[in-house]
Every structure is written in C-alpha cells, then in structure tokens.
# Entry
Amino acid sequence: MNKKNIVLVGFMGTGKTTLGRLLAARTGMKLVDMDSIIEERAGKLISDIFAQEGEAHFRQLERALVQELAAESGLVVSTGGGIVLDPDNIADFERTGLVVCLLLSAEAILERVRHDDTRPLLSGDKVEKIRELLEFRRPLYEAIEHRIETDGLTPEQKATQIMELYNAINS
Ligand code: S3P
# Structure
C-alpha cells in the first residue's frame, strides 16, 4: 500500500518548515518544501517572482506543484501559507494525504516574522498586513478537518500529535 503524504498547512510563521523536518526525520519520508521547489525551478526568490511576475503567476506555479505532489506518495509537504486560497489545492492534497493545519495566535505569528523581510505579502506595516490576511484567511484555515492549536507547544509535541493522526489513518 502506498504511504499517505503528510501535508502541513498554516499561515506564514506557523512553523511548517521546522515541523516538516522533524516529521521527515521521524517517518523516514522525504521532505518537500513547496516554496523552495518553486524558487529552484524559477531560478529566483519568491519575492522576485511576486515583484516581476505578480502574485497570480506565483499562485499558478503553486497550483501546478500541488497537482504534481498530490499524485505522489510518502512525502512530508511543507506548503506556502496561501495554499488555502484555492480550495482545489486542499481537495487534491486530501485525496492522497493527511492535511494538517497549524493554528497560531496573531501575536505569536508577529513575534516569529517580526525580523523577516523575505515574505512579499508582509512588506510594509507587518501588524496591519498580518491582521488583514488572517481575518480574510481564518475561515479557510478553520475549514480544514485536522487542525492543531500550536501556541505553547514545542515542535516535538506538534510532531507527536500529527504522528498520532497519521498512524490512525494508516491503521
Ligand atoms: C505566502 C506564504 C509564503 C510564500 C509566499 C506567499 C502566503 O510561504 O508561499 O510568500 O500567501 O501566505 P510561508 O508560509 O512558508 O511563509
């Protein structure tokens, strides 16, 4: 039987990449970071894709990569925070994997991205941008079946919760 993928979803700064690494180490599955693949294939940074080709083009690259990865198995996928904007992305990933949404308070998100200047959607007034984006996206994140409230949890504790879910769907 093909091993299901584990797909990590959540707003910027919710710790998807760190957790992805931990889960890959625990499961022995391959870690795939979507933003890194998009950057590698485009030969430029996400911020340059946004600046030169625009967000809509980035979303097309993201959508095509979802279709590609959802057709594979045995991957730990760390997605970009905007993956929820197209419901087809979540539907595709759910067909072949466990999709888990990481929820984190706006204060903790701000703390984690405060000094980060690589995310194009947070350039300018970060507090205001995070507030606006979270307000718009919250229902999309909350619509995902499996969600973890991560405030106060260590990456190890988050990984353990996800492994329990993953083992349950595979048994
Ligand atoms: C985005 C999140 C980023 C990256 C891009 C857009 C978003 O990924 O895909 O800057 O729309 O939330 P991270 O969630 O890994 O920061």
Q: What stands out?
A: The first strand starts at residue 5 and ends at 10. The beta strands are 5-10, 30-33, 75-78, 97-103, 146-149.
